[in-house]
């Protein structure tokens, strides 16, 4: 193939890395190449270096060439390999499933802190719901952290839930998955006053913000999991917040990932819905990215 010196592993690796034309940062190119070799050739960087003289079959090089073509079109590497890493868990992703982000890692770790605080004072079993689960990464990570908790996750699509359930089984997690829709009035199989924690990373990018996003995100990742209309950017928070108010136990918590520009608006919304102890938390980059709120212990409906 053009530019390929030989079929030695070291030469194939150099050829692949040099052939990525999509405008990634040079550090991204190295990380993407390592990920491709790890996932498609089942080879860690150390194994690759130590086996540099190994000869690769033509079929493997053809597979790498196909992956390179997809990368140069801007397709995310996670869709090419079919998986993403999330807090040490292998999560299956693909078209229609949002790729887990670092911000969501921060959200899960914040929820973890909240659960650990509650465990200190309560001995009853915990019930956790990941609403709009997508890839299932939130529910899977929390289930692994708290295996004695009853973890559930829901989304609006059978196909999305199928992938999420597969990831849960792959990671030996016991998560119950079911259909739900944030924008309808169904009960979604949740008993009122039964949840301790509801966590959600709903769509929150305004349509007008598309232009400022990376082209490969807009071109490949599911718009329904990302975008909300400019005239109603709190659509999902309003509906999920209303449902959570019914489903949470007295003193239960709701946690959201939010648009960095809407911290004050989300705070106002949750306050109007009767939540207390509302707190907006910044992410590692100093942006308003998360919010949590508590269902009051008294005066509930």
What does this 3D model show about the protein?
With 301 residues, this protein is of the alpha/beta class. It folds into two domains: 9-73; 90-294, Vaccinia Virus protein VP39 (Rossmann fold), CATH 3.40.50.150. Helices cover 41% and strands 19% of the residues. The protein contains eleven helices and eleven strands. It has a seven-stranded mixed sheet with strand order 5-4-3-6-9-11-10, sandwiched between helices. A two-stranded antiparallel sheet has the order 1-2. α2 (26-41) crosses α4 (58-72) and α6 runs parallel beside α7.
- The overall average pLDDT, rounded, is 94
Q: What is the molecular shape?
A: elongated
Structural Rg: 22 Å
Query: Largest sheet, if any?
Result: 7 strands, mixed
User: How would you write the strand order of the largest sheet?
Assistant: 5-4-3-6-9-11-10
Range of helix content: 40-55%
* DSSP summary, beta strand count: 11
Order of helices and strands: HHHHHEEHEHEHEEEHEHEHEE
CATH-defined superfamily of the largest domain: Vaccinia Virus protein VP39
CATH fold-type name of the largest domain: Rossmann fold
In short:
The protein has 301 residues and is α/β, with parallel strands linked by helices.
């Amino acid at each position: 193939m053009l530019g390929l010196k030989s079929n030695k592993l070291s030469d194939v690796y150099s050829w692949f890395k040099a052939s990525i034309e999509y405008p990634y940062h040079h550090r991204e190119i190295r990380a993407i190449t390592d990920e491709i070799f790890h996932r498609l050739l089942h080879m860690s960087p150390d194994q690759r270096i130590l086996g540099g003289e190994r000869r690769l079959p033509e079929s493997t090089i053809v597979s790498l060439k196909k992956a390179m073509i997809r990368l140069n079109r801007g397709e995310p590497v996670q869709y090419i390999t079919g998986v993403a890493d999330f807090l040490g868990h292998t999560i299956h992703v693909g078209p229609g499933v949002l790729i887990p982000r670092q911000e969501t890692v921060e959200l899960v770790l914040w929820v973890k802190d909240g659960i650990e605080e509650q465990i200190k004072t309560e001995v009853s079993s915990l019930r956790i719901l990941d609403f709009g689960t997508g890839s299932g990464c939130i529910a899977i990570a929390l289930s692994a952290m708290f295996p004695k908790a009853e973890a559930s996750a829901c989304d609006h699509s059978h196909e999305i839930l199928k992938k999420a359930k597969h990831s849960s089984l792959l990671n030996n997690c016991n998560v119950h998955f079911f259909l739900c829709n944030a924008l309808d009035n169904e009960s979604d199989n949740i008993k009122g006053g039964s949840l301790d924690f509801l966590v959600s990373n709903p769509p929150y990018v305004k349509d007008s913000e598309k232009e400022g996003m990376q082209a490969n995100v807009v071109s490949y990742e599911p718009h329904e999991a990302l975008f909300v209309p400019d005239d109603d950017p709190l659509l999902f928070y309003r509906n999920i917040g209303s449902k959570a108010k019914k489903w949470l136990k007295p003193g239960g918590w709701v946690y959201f990932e939010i648009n960095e520009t809407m911290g004050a608006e989300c705070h106002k919304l949750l306050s109007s819905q009767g939540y207390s102890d509302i707190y907006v938390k910044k992410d590692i980059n100093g942006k308003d990215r998360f919010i949590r709120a508590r269902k009051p212990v008294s005066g509930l409906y």
